[in-house]
Predict the 3D structure of the following.
Amino acid sequence: METLAQLAPVIILAPAIGAFINFFWGARIGEQASAIIASTASAFSFVIAVLLLLYLVNNDYTAMVVDPPLLDSWIRMDSIGVDIPWQTRVDSLSVTMMLFVTFVGTLIHIYAAGYMHGDPRFARFFAYLNMFLAFMLILITGNNFLMMFVGWEGVGLCSYLLIGFWWDKPNGVGWENSNAARKAFIANRVGDFGVLMAVFLIFWSFGTLDFYKPYELANPEVGAHGHSEEGDHGEGEDHAEEEAFTPGQPMTILIVEETGGEAGEEDGHGEDDHGSAFATYSYQDDDIEMQQLGVFGQAERMVDADADVELGPFTLSIETTLVIITLFLLLGATGKSAQIPLFVWLPDAMAGPTPVSALIHAATMVTSGVYMMVRANTFFYHADLTSFIVTLVGVGTALVAGFIALGQFDIKRVLAYSTVSQLGFMVAAVGIGAYPAAIFHMMTHAFFKALLFLGSGSVIHGMEHGHHHVAHGHGHGDDDHHDEEEFDPQDMRNMGGLKERMPTTYWTYIFGTLALAGLWPFAGFWSKDEILADSWLVFFQDGELAGAIAFFGLFAAAGFTAFYMWRQIEMVFLTDPRTEAAEHAHESPPSMTIPLVILAVASVVVGFFNLPSGTLSRVFAVGLDGIFSKHALADFLEHSILHFHIPDFQALIALGALTLGFAAIFAAHTIYGDNKAMSELWEKGDPLQRRPETGQIFGVANARMYWDEIYFRFIINPYTVAAKFLANVIDWQFWHDYFHDGVIGRGYRGMSRILASPVDLGIIDGAVNGVGKLVRFISGNFSKLQTGYVRTYAVGLFLGVVVVIVLILIPLI
């Protein structure tokens, strides 16, 4: 089983090969072959992820760092002692991410084969999808910050390519799509600056970028005692008798040394089939050099020792250094995971094809920031100031995005703001130290949000074909579904009555909606409840203000979620059709509906993977607690995360959240149900807009709280004005027209004229011509001496003799 870990590099290689084939040969091999290659590559990565899970289960969850074959190192500068390897990390956190990223990604690939049928750049689209998946897997499998940053930048590039994929749409839509892609790219570059600064500080402070050195335990207390309860608020039966872990206890590194024979047992570790001797050492043992630890192990040791960090001329405590590092990491997370103030790019990402929206918003790019913070949990745990700011950012984002979603009419834009809001839940969970809860909600969200986005794509697909039928008066041929029409197939005001016309899409969409709303027994009920329970316990037991902010803020955001999702259900599926296109819409093909059914089932099942302990939890689990282990996911993640909470089931909180969810759904049905939102009323606006008490509030939500306008006025427009001034006035008029043409050009021409006329013609040519004239003058005069008469030459000879005699006699005289 240990050899299974060596397959880790293949999980990246498979989609990379699929992308390579489709880039160069996809257009030649046709749509079907291109889709099969891309989907098979993604599915193969999922199989590898399952095999890596088997490796962990059968090897006591011991992490493995794998060096890819034929690559001894990545960045090595022996002269200054720098060695940054390209290493793949197989541990419970990375494998959890691999599993749902590849599973959901594969379903999206299959769905896209039907959705993108007929697109002239079909093969290129699948090449981008495979490349996106490959970079995401680099991000989550890398064992150091720099390798993670390669994947971080890669998904940013692929998002740019996919969001702007339809850059050539007519009537100005192509420009909007390309601007949306550029907006995403620029917003993420702001966050990437933060990650780069954090990477520089980490390398300066610790001398390495490795998360952990090979065979170093992320949570050594788990390796020594089975489970750690540091920071655990729960007193569940699974954890009640376990020894609590507190900072300052001896922490161990597991070092594997290959031996030729049998290995003895030490600290409960036996020998394996390959003769590897296991030995444990304490982090506090002076025999263990700092260089044998990764950045997180070094941070733990330095915090325990209250060490200082030399930053050039400055000396900072390790706690202050970690605050600075984590603030930069938070800036990066606000970009990738779309938090305030950099969340504005994510709703515009709807410009891309729907499979892109599902891939970006569900399982891949937007989860990167949360994953990075959970991976760096040691840093955030020891940076109280940053953790409090993280909580504020997460709660604020959840509330703001949830409120904005109440007033949107674009079916995908509602889901986009919903994604931003749910990411706020995860970020807030990180802020209060509920790292397993953040990952749990990330996992459940990946399934039901992918379901909702793909379901919205199915709705749009049906509406486009319905409009095509009405516009052209014939059946639904294989038209180019993304040709620009006056009709907007994404506007919910054009829909209605799709329950009967698209039954599979409707029922799967209901599953996704109820899961997102956090209703029992769907997955969102368990993951949201765990975050709320963690927040309450941090406030109630620990007395921390962050817990209160998280609990009450996220509780209100959960109410927004249930309301705007049922508003969408009413407008899209339950009211009578408001357009002829809705009347003629039809169900999507099986390649699109089968992934919806699979994701709908998963939106229920995955919630039971982390059942909480407690008597009432068994009631809510309806006997499934005998099939699914309590705290299974948290216990699994405990081998990769050092500091976290595992709360018991909080019945009052769960019942309160359920009551709020049902109340919000009832309110949405009261306002939008029973055809209260029919077409003849839309001229007066949304039902909420028509009410005097809610009209202005709805207007603010519909205007997206003027975030884009504020950014345009205070950032984008000043930047554009400055850019135009620099380009037109400074660069063109001054630098080019005046300086280049006026100063340099005129000066060059004037100097050329001086050099050409007075200098070249007057002095140089005059001197040369003067020499010639002098030579001609002298030669002309001397030529007169050549008379041809002997008497003349005799006189000349006589005069010469006289001159010689005179010269001889002058000294004597």
Summary: The two ends are 123 Å apart (CA to CA).
